[in-house]
Amino acid sequence: MPAKVSDIMNKRMAFSFEVFPPKTEEGMKKLIGADGVLDKLCATLPDYISCTYGAGGSNVGLNVEVLDAVKAHSGVIPITHFTCIGHTKESIKQQLQNYLDHGINHILALRGDLPFGWTGTGGDLSYATELVAYIRKEFGDKFTIGVAGSPEGHIACRSLEADIAYLKQKQDNGADFIMTQLCWDMDQFRYWRDAIAAAGITIPVDVGIMPVLDAKSTINMAFSRNGCVLPRKLAEIISKHWIFPDPFVSDPYDADAAAKKASFKAAGIEYTIGLIDEYRVSGINGIHLYALNKYDEVAAIIKESGLIDRV
Ligand code: FAD
């Protein structure tokens, strides 16, 4: 029987990466070319590697190409992310069959972020709950299905309780495991972990961790979509290494910009390792690192944190 990541996570803590399909040919070569980032990530023996899916499926060809490359590494399970955005039921069925034809039978079933200015998915399905039910109806048990969980509550949810109730519905509709949105607030995470257990959610929880490597993407990730709490320690790292006038300009007048970038990265890597330590002792089933298509920084984190010491 081929491995299912949910079975792995029910036995022991899993360890995995997330990559995205690059927009350029050069980026693809760097990621999936010989001795590229993917080869190096696979050499650390993760249980799986997931690949993101552009809302609306604009990058689906490249997404499949990346997943094919993951599949070529035996022992590493490829997982595709998939969203409802802009899809009819028929187009979902066709794309999912295409994944199966490529030997990809693990899927992260998402609603997807609504494109700027949209008020709905523009497709036949409106929520991930519906997508999970549809996959089970059309494909039975052919897919192992992951779903998103938001320890701080999804930014658009009417309450944390409602969000947890919908998460339970995803489990009831057939989801096999949860992959979480990034959360730096450990008190909130522990509260959510207890709350989902009380709600009857028993499927494994795989924790998503974004390495803290630069101020711009950390601030963007926290606030452009997710409304995450920034703990004081992380806010201090951002403030102490602030590039003036701000980290978003391409030509800062700050003479120390290069040194601050480097010292931010060092402090961010240390912070990320500490976060992994805290998560590992909090009763989770997996660590899912957003590898951001990088190897060196990610390697530093997994080596220092001991994640690749598993046998
Ligand atoms: P849902 O679970 O559908 O929830 C969306 C909102 O609706 C929530 O506020 C929820 O409380 C509410 N809700 C849920 N079900 C119902 C219901 N039945 N009735 C009424 N309200 C409901 N996006 C991409 O475009 N591509 C990616 O590759 C991608 N990868 C991701 C990976 C991870 C690990 C995570 C956590 C997110 C990822 N996202 C990705 C982002 C994700 O698409 C967004 O967070 C999106 O806004 C919500 O997706 P969801 O599956 O959580 O939605």
Can you describe what's shown?
It contains 12 helices and 8 strands. With 311 residues, it is α/β, with parallel strands linked by helices. The chain has one domain (5-213, 267-309): TIM Barrel (Alpha-Beta Barrel). The chain is globular, with a radius of gyration of 19 Å. The two termini are 21 Å apart. Residues 52-53, 55, 81, 83, 108, 110-113, 127-129, 148, 154, 156-157, 162-163, 166, 179, 181, 208 line the site of flavin-adenine dinucleotide.
Uncertain runs are: none
Order of helices and strands: HEHHEHEHEHEHEHEHHHEH
| CATH architecture level-2 label | Alpha-Beta Barrel
Task: Supply the number of helical segments.
Answer: 12
Strand content: 5-15%
- Overall radius of gyration: 19 Å
CATH class division = Alpha Beta
SSE class = alpha/beta
Largest sheet: 8 strands, parallel, barrel
How far apart the termini lie comes to 21 Å
Number of beta strands: 8
Give the strand order, joined by hyphens, for the main sheet.
Answer: 1-2-3-4-5-6-7-8
CATH T-level fold name:
TIM Barrel
Q: What number of domains?
A: 1
Coarse shape = globular
Helix content: 40-55%
On the 0 to 100 scale, the average pLDDT is: 95
Bound molecules: flavin-adenine dinucleotide
